Amino acid sequence: MLSQLLERAGSSGCLAMLVFAHPDDEAIALGARLHRFDSPLLVHITDGAPRNLDDSTAHGFRSLADYRRQREEELNCALKLAGLEATKRIRLGIPDQEATLCLSQLTRDIRRLLLRHRPEVVFTHPYEGGHPDHDACTFAVHRAVAAVEAAGRKPPAIVEADFYHSGPNGMATGCFLPHSDHTEEICLSLSDDERRRRQALLACFSSQQDILHCFPPDRECFRIAPRYDFHRPPHRTPVFYDQHPWGMTSARFCELAREADALDREMSPA
């Protein structure tokens, strides 16, 4: 099923919706095959620029606006290289590192997009405690897809790409965090041409090279999304972002997920 989805996702007869947290996540996830997609719907939930200015100043920018503009220009470069400069893009505009504070609204926004565009497949992040915005994106996609199914519509398949999580030696990349709900998984070894395509797209994101060099250049992994319990951390704490000053902890994320689910139950018709 997964291999067929990956092949169909690039065809004109299958609308693929790419829902990622930050500009550059689509290149990390799909850099070698992004050029194969025919008019995907690309959704970024954040602007890639934290409001606390730490990232802006660390990357040599004088203002938040300058850094945000740079992130946008980098994405434009990558999409042009992939032949997708005219693809439909939706920016939900949440400041970087703040998506966890908007779980209910984010879920409603993605549900609205699913109902309007009716994609066959959604590519997104796994729930693995790598970055709080990634986990927020995963939560919203899963809850929105469930709401579409509850409304009697055919839900899209959720396909995850591998990103990063806490490992024995720090940040683990190039693999999924194991999950008890075993689902189909594929790791694709890239040809020389695919490696060049992937690296060319990643090179567009000049402000992010300090982290992008951590991702393997020779493979891309995908998995049918398992069922997640967002009320618990994805693994024994600390998760990766528990160890970084990104304004969120795994315990707080799970609390916010429970609050969002409770709010959804209150708003749902009996």
Walkthrough of the structure:
- With 270 residues, this protein is of the alpha/beta class.
- It has one domain (2-267): Rossmann fold (3-Layer(aba) Sandwich), CATH 3.40.50.10320.
- 39% of the residues lie in helices and 17% in strands.
- It contains nine helices and nine strands.
- A hairpin with a 2-residue loop joins β6 (164-167) and β7.
- The longest helix has 19 residues, at 132-150.
- The radius of gyration is 17 Å and the shape is globular.
SSE layout and pairing:
Elements: H1 2-8, E1 16-20, H2 25-30, E2 41-46, H3 54-58, H4 64-81, E3 88-94, H5 103-117, E4 121-124, H6 132-150, E5 157-161, E6 164-167, E7 170-173, E8 185-189, H7 192-203, H8 209-212, E9 219-224, H9 250-267
CATH hierarchy: architecture: 3-Layer(aba) Sandwich
The fraction of residues assigned to DSSP E strands is: 15-25%
CATH top level assignment: Alpha Beta
Could you say how many structural domains there are in total? 1
What's the total number of strands?
9
SSE pattern: HEHEHHEHEHEEEEHHEH
**Considering DSSP H and I runs of 4 or more, what fraction of the residues is helical?**
25-40%
CATH homologous superfamily title = LmbE-like
**What is the CATH T-level topology?**
Rossmann fold
Radius of gyration: 17 Å
Report the principal-axis shape.
globular
Terminal CA distance? 35 Å
- Summed over residues and divided by their number, the pLDDT gives a mean of 95
Task: Walk across the major sheet and give the strand order.
Answer: 3-2-1-4-5-9-8
